[in-house]
Write a structure and sequence with these properties.
With about 280 residues, the chain is of the alpha/beta class. Helix content is about 50%, strand content about 15%. The longest helix is centred in the middle third of the chain and has 29 residues.
Length: about 280
């Protein structure tokens, strides 16, 4: 089966679809003939992106609100048909030292990155299991397998996404419903604004993540890392002493990427939005 055959006419919902990885994924899937609906909490950017892409179905979506999420999925199914794929992409990545992170920001990261993913997965799976067909794809991160100074709460949230998704996948493996995780490396979106990435490893592009998602829909798998090189580096660290792995991480600059080597002015707009600070 070709990618076009696998994707065409599937009803696919993408959270956090107004920008970054979400928008790149919507663009790719729409081009392949999927019936794509995007949700986002940023109504102005959502309308702009959906209009540029030519999407008929989109709406404001707060992934931390059960009523908002359920109503959005109901609306999509009324207009497009039964949900085939949910891509839980919405997430935030404020950076900084743990003791400087306000409790409100900690809660916000966990609410969006963890609870929002669990909530969306449950609501989608309830529909899919009854039909014995469907696919939930959760955007995690290689930070969910790699301790990263400056991103402690974000890393915790992505560790949680991986644990949840793997457990749900096994729980529903005989129902016709698939669960998958995507683990991007540093990706050139606003999340990494003002940072330089890891030494010796290229950042991914949003389109790389979109291509990986197409691959998962075409041929479901438990996990996929993007880029492959970054995924191999992270996987190899499981087979070496912890001290050696941390030495390699230091050499790659991971101890400083989100703490010392940050252009704070270039990052401010994203940090304010991620932290819920009104401009």
């Amino acid at each position: 089966m070709t990618e076009q055959d696998a994707i065409r006419d599937k009803v696919i919902v993408i959270t956090g679809g107004a920008r970054g990885i979400g928008l790149a994924t919507a663009t790719t899937l729409h081009r392949l003939g999927a019936k794509v609906a995007i949700g986002d909490v940023d109504e102005a950017k959502l309308k702009e992106s959906a209009t540029e892409l030519g999407l008929d179905v989109y709406g404001k979506l707060d992934v931390t609100d059960p009523e908002s999420f359920s109503a959005f999925l109901d609306d999509v199914e009324r207009q497009l048909g039964p949900l085939d794929v949910l891509i839980n992409n919405a997430g935030i990545m404020p950076a900084g030292k743990v003791i400087d992170e306000p409790d409100r920001v900690t809660r916000r990261i966990l609410d969006i990155n963890v609870y929002g993913v669990i909530l969306g997965s449950k609501l989608a799976a309830q529909r899919m299991v009854a039909r014995r067909s469907g696919h939930v794809i959760n955007i995690a991160s290689l930070a969910g397998e790699t301790p990263t100074p400056g991103l402690a709460t974000y890393c915790a949230s992505k560790y949680a996404v991986l644990g949840f998704t793997d457990s749900a996948r096994i729980e529903y493996r005989d129902t016709g419903v698939h669960f998958s995780s995507v683990l991007p490396t540093f990706t050139n979106t606003e999340l990494v604004a003002g940072t330089s990435g890891a030494k010796l490893l290229k950042n991914a592009e949003p389109e790389d993540i979109a291509d990986a998602i197409v691959g998962l829909i075409t041929k479901p798998a438990p996990r996929v890392a993007v880029t492959r090189a970054a995924g191999l580096v992270v996987a190899s660290m499981k087979f070496i002493p912890q001290s050696t792995g941390e030495f390699i991480a230091r050499k790659l600059g991971l101890e400083h990427v989100f703490l010392d080597d940050v252009d704070n002015a270039a990052r401010k707009a994203y940090e304010d939005r991620a932290r819920g600070i009104e401009s």
